[in-house]
Specification:
Elements (H helix, E strand, L loop, with lengths): L4 E6 L6 H11 L2 E5 H10 L3 H12 L5 H16 L6 E5 L5 H14 L2 E9 L2 H9 L8 H15 L1 H8 L3 E5 L4 H16 L1
Parallel strand pairs: 1-3, 1-4, 2-3, 4-5
The chain binds adenosine-5'-diphosphate.
């Protein structure tokens, strides 16, 4: 079986994870997996997963780990059998230590590796400015505050988790879109060198 590589994006809502992941997938032969997009698709199509996830997504809470871990597990297993993909960009996963541990186990089992964990660091003020302009249903000011709180409490501990594994690179996410993507390319080049 061909080996797969993973790139993980971390950063609060509005930090540009999805945008940067799209830019990178166009440059590398990678697949972009946005758990948020996948959940919203399931909600629109009213699937079993969509019905279970809906109330969490609408209130800005995290969907329970077991649902997300199952989703990730089947996605990765399926992709592993596709020979023309070099890697996966994970945007919005993991978001809890439990999810990160599950991913680590899956990665060991499949004998693949994490190439880098890219942390887009952004100020709260910039987050509020950006999300105000986006207009998604969960981008209302009170929900943004809750999503930020959830991020700080449940996802931020992952920075330490990946730092301990020497995988973490932090990028100033307040910069322009192209400055952020240049910074990412430089990091990835350095990893390859
Ligand atoms: P953002 O990064 O802007 O919060 P996403 O599209 O990544 O937006 O996520 C939207 C929502 O989907 C989250 O608020 C949460 O309810 C749910 N979600 C996404 N990823 C995960 C995850 N890994 N674990 C649990 N819930 C998730």
């Amino acid at each position: 079986m061909k080996s797969l590589e993973f790139l993980i994006f971390l950063g609060p809502p509005g930090s540009g994870k999805g945008t940067q992941a799209e830019i990178l997938t166009n440059k590398l032969n990678f697949i972009h997996l946005s758990i948020g997009d996948l959940l919203r698709e399931n909600i629109v199509n009213n699937t079993e997963l969509g019905k279970l996830a809906s109330k969490y997504v609408k209130s800005g809470e995290l969907v329970p780990d077991e649902l997300i871990i199952d989703l990730m597990d089947s996605f990765i297993t399926e992709l592993k059998n596709e020979s023309n993909v070099s890697g996966i960009i994970l945007d919005g996963f993991p978001r809890t230590i439990n999810q990160a541990t599950a991913l680590e186990n899956k990665i060991k089992q499949l004998n693949v590796n994490i190439k880098a964990v890219l942390n887009l660091d952004i100020s709260d003020q910039e987050i509020l400015n950006r999300l105000a302009g986006r207009g998604r249903e969960d981008d209302k000011p009170e929900l943004i505050k809750n999503r930020l709180k959830v991020y700080r409490n449940q996802t931020e501990p992952l920075l330490e988790f990946y730092k301990e594994r020497s995988l973490l690179d932090t990028i100033d996410g307040d910069q322009s879109e192209s400055d952020v993507s240049n910074a990412i390319f430089n990091i990835l080049k350095a990893e390859v060198a």
